[in-house]
Amino acid sequence: MDLTPAPTLTLHVNGRPEEFAARPSELLVERLRDGLGLTGTKVGCDTGQCGTCVVRLDGRSVKSCLVLTASAAGSEVTTIEGVSERGGELTGLQEALRQEHGTQCGFCTPGMVMALGELVENTAAGTAPTEPEIREWLTGNLCRCTGYHSVVRGVQRACAAPADPAVTAVPAAEGR
Amino acid sequence: MILTDFDYARAASLEEALTLLAGTDGARVLAGGQSLLPGLRTGAEKARLLIDVRHLAQLRGVGQDGGELRIGALTTLAELAADPLVRAGAPELAAAARANGDPQVRNLGTVGGNLAATERPTDLPVAAIAAGARAELAGPGGTRTAPAEELAASGVPAGEVLTALLVPAAGAAAAFEKTADRATRYPVCAAAVRITPDGPRIAVTGATPRALRLRGVEDRLRGGPYTTTAVLAAFRAEPRELFVPGRGTSAEYLGHLAGVLTARALARAAAHSSA
Ligand SMILES: Cc1cc2nc3c(=O)[nH]c(=O)nc-3n(C[C@H](O)[C@H](O)[C@H](O)COP(=O)(O)OP(=O)(O)OC[C@H]3O[C@@H](n4cnc5c(N)ncnc54)[C@H](O)[C@@H]3O)c2cc1C
Ligand code: FES
Ligand code: FES
């Protein structure tokens, strides 16, 4: 079958317009990792099961292995590289996860941060989601290391004390 | 990475989608892609052209016209689960949408896609049947409606696009129950009920080959009371062939599970019933 030549598409990735040609069957995760070099987004399964490829698409958390690049064209995409407003600094959520040991090997962490970011943003200031709510929100994110308890505590810490200097952004170098 | 190649077209209108669908062999509608893309990835699905309807804003959103909810086919499962009109008028649908997959699947997966997907039993069809909903379908010959039960039986006919789900909004006394497969979140069995002045409407999936309305069970339970004992007896009176063994589940187990889930759903629905 003759396919239409790869059209030129535009994506707004982490606030920057990116123009490129992509074959119609290309998945968003392939564009991000192989095309744009944003390898913070991981691939664990490629079939929507593991959640390590989660990014934000026009604000919503989605699995980038289950989105065609062509269907995302024209949209805003945020990857783990773009979550921090000031490059290199951890967000409150990331710092809270670090303090609660919510990451071990780290393979699931970018997807966790991108998925949980939507939950945290939609939680009213000064309140925290309940443990069952956090666990339900994590249904799509598999972690083989932490056992999730520390991740749950990290989310509660991030929500409960957003103004606490200990959990707001600190330079990455100090944060280690 | 998807190993087969296909063309992609973003439909600018429903009419364009229908024209492309009619004019191309192997053309498939792409909505949220949460079933179709993994299917293409594993080779379970085939397509030569994907017609992307996800951006058609006129097919998205919930409205109420008198006693009927109109749910656009491109409404996402997350939107459906959170919609105040749906939660009040069709709680079994909101609960079925909420029970689906995970937040990321619900952010992209759509009402139309969940009703049209055929690879495995999905959650919305039982809720749509119990609610007495009708599907609105657009095709080359115009627009028609079909009962949700008929859609579950025969699927979306080739060349047609599901445009909306039309749902009677009288359903405070309605509920959905599911036992999810631990790994995939798809239903091992799901049941939805709505108590109407004419008696209960009951639909089951997972335990049965497809989403089915169980009229025999409804007849046996008409007038109530919906005790667990009565509901399980009503299920035991069904022909044994109704329930098909699943992955690691016997027909006997599934028949019992369907009864238990239905009993739970009826108990919750009855608590809100004035019928
Ligand atoms: C990890 C994971 C977990 C999941 N868990 C569940 C679960 O627990 N329960 C459940 O029910 N489902 C589950 N699903 C499936 C998911 O909910 C459905 O795939 C989704 O709702 C389908 O909608 P979609 O818009 O993504 O459809 P698509 O994938 O875009 O399409 C699915 C099918 O429907 C057709 N189609 C789509 N829209 C229309 C339309 N408007 N008119 C005509 N045909 C159309 C397509 O051609 C295709 O054949 C899961 C999926 C994943 C990846
Ligand atoms: S790589 Fe996308 S969900 Fe696993
Ligand atoms: S930290 Fe290793 S997979 Fe989650």
TrEMBL record, chain A:
Keyword entries, A-Z: 2Fe-2S, Iron, Iron-sulfur, Metal-binding, Oxidoreductase
Cited Pfam families: Fer2, Fer2_2
GO molecular function: 2 iron, 2 sulfur cluster binding; metal ion binding; oxidoreductase activity
Pathway participation: Alkaloid degradation; nicotine degradation
Residue ranges constituting the 2Fe-2S ferredoxin-type domain according to the UniProt record: 7-83
InterPro entries reported for this sequence: 2Fe-2S-bd, 2Fe-2S-bd_dom_sf, 2Fe-2S_ferredoxin-like_sf, 2Fe-2S_ferredoxin-type, 2Fe2S_fd_BS, Beta-grasp_dom_sf, Diverse_Oxidoreductases
Domain of life according to the entry: Bacteria
Protein name (database record): (2Fe-2S)-binding protein
Organism field: Streptomyces katrae
TrEMBL record, chain B:
Domain FAD-binding PCMH-type, chain residue ranges per copy: 1-172
SMART domains: CO_deh_flav_C
Alphabetic keyword roster: FAD, Flavoprotein, Oxidoreductase
Listed InterPro entries: CO_DH_flav_C, CO_DH_flav_C_dom_sf, Diverse_Substr_Oxidored, FAD-bd_PCMH, FAD-bd_PCMH-like_sf, FAD-bd_PCMH_sub1, FAD-bd_PCMH_sub2, Mopterin_DH_FAD-bd
Signal sequence extent: none
Pfam families registered for this protein in UniProt: CO_deh_flav_C, FAD_binding_5
Entry's Gene Ontology molecular function annotations: FAD binding; oxidoreductase activity
Name under which the protein is recorded: FAD-binding PCMH-type domain-containing protein
UniProt source species: Streptomyces katrae
Lineage, top ranks: Bacteria, Bacillati, Actinomycetota, Actinomycetes, Kitasatosporales
